[in-house]
Design a protein that fits this description.
By secondary structure, the chain is mainly alpha-helical. It is built from eleven helices and three strands; from the N terminus they run αβααββαααααααα. It folds into two domains: 74 residues, Winged helix-like DNA-binding domain superfamily/Winged helix DNA-binding domain (Arc Repressor Mutant, subunit A, Orthogonal Bundle), CATH 1.10.10.10; 158 residues, Up-down Bundle (Four Helix Bundle (Hemerythrin (Met), subunit A)), CATH 1.20.120. 73% of the residues lie in helices and 4% in strands.
């Protein structure tokens, strides 16, 4: 291999950069079949072992799928892929769940603003059905699941794929940091009632395409959850 191609990089870094460029440039898209190890090795002038090493790393991170007898394909569960990387970064930087919560809330504020205009009749009906189901007697755990469904529907109705992706990822991080966080909030009847009212307030405001009311209702929701989060942070620091 011509070492001038490496520019001081290790061979596996050079190969990894090749895959990054292929994806970022659009030459490789989701579900595309990747050229064989031999073809890539010949193109880059590196050993097949170097290609195999990077392919294995990409398979572990969930970016590609290696199918025996068929080949290698670009496969990516975006949330799962990003969670694996972000979890490690969060741990190394010692970022706590309060910081994650505030970022996630910021995304949802943006989603509400977009949903006022973009939510479809089907999505609004989906929110209504979730809220009506939450009115029925059930455990805090069951109610927490429906609460999550409501927020997923709310963010989905923004029709912004980046918001949907990042909000889902941050939900996953919060769930990992705080087991059954929503259920803990909903075990308190007063908090549960405040959240119930704010949920309905968000829904009705979206139905009326009323941005000020939607933001007002979401802000009430945010304050209830933030107060509980602060208590959990304080408890965990003791």
């Amino acid at each position: 291999m011509d070492n001038s191609k490496l520019n001081g990089k290790k061979t596996y870094e050079y190969v990894f950069d090749y895959f990054s460029e292929q994806i970022l440039s659009g030459k490789l898209k989701l579900n595309d079949k990747i050229p064989t190890e031999r073809e890539i090795a010949e193109q880059l002038g590196v050993s097949r072992n170097s290609i195999r090493e990077v392919m294995h790393m990409l398979e572990i991170t969930g970016l590609i799928e290696c199918l025996q007898g068929s080949g290698n394909y670009v496969r990516c569960d975006p949330v799962e892929y990003m969670l694996k990387s972000v979890n490690m970064v969060m741990a190394l930087l010692e970022i706590d769940y309060a910081e994650i919560f505030h970022i996630r809330t910021g995304y949802e504020y943006a989603a509400v603003r977009l949903a006022v205009e973009a939510a479809t009749e089907e999505e609004l009906e989906g929110m209504r059905q979730i809220l009506e189901e939450m009115e029925q007697p059930m455990s805090a755990k069951e109610s927490a699941r429906l609460d999550l469904d409501f927020h997923h529907m709310l963010v989905k109705s923004s029709h912004n794929r980046i918001l949907i992706l990042y909000s889902s990822m941050l939900d996953g991080l919060l769930d990992q940091f705080i087991e059954n966080f929503r259920a803990k909030i909903l075990t308190n009847k007063m908090r549960a009632e405040l959240l119930r009212r704010s949920h309905w307030g968000i829904y009705h405001a979206l139905r009326e395409r009323d941005l000020p009311e939607a933001m007002k209702a979401f802000d009430k929701h945010f304050r209830v959850v933030e107060a509980q989060l602060e208590k959990l942070v304080q408890k965990n620091s003791e």
